[in-house]
Amino acid sequence: MDEEVARCAEGATIAVPAVVRRELDRLVARSVPYTRVARELGRRYPTLPCAGEGDRAILACARRSGALLVTADRDLARRALECGTDVLGPRDRLRLTRRTGRARGGSGRSSRGRIKSRGRLVRDPR
After folding, report:
1. Is the whole-model pTM more than 0.90?
2. CATH, residue 47
3. DSSP string spanning 53-98?
């Protein structure tokens, strides 16, 4: 994942939003498949503080920090793009594709900041 994020956003730094960590902990407690692996992977990266819960909190955190969102959740990606946040999403099992958010009344470029996922945030050096 690190290499693929670096290919799509050179110089990026990955971090995990606090809301994602809390959600993974809840899912692991409910024995949801694959969440234990996702939580362990996320522990390799620093935590980005953010308030609230769910997708709304993830989007607010991304907008506030100028993040790029790394996610496979199509609805979350669509909402992020609509509010001007760039998104890295799966092209296939091993590759990501970067899509540019459509800022309301703006140029369509998101601001500098971090990339974020349902588990990962990455600093965009631009």
Report:
1. no
2. 3.40.50
3. -HHHHHHHHHHHHTPEEE-S-HHHHHHHHHTT--EEEESSSS-EEE
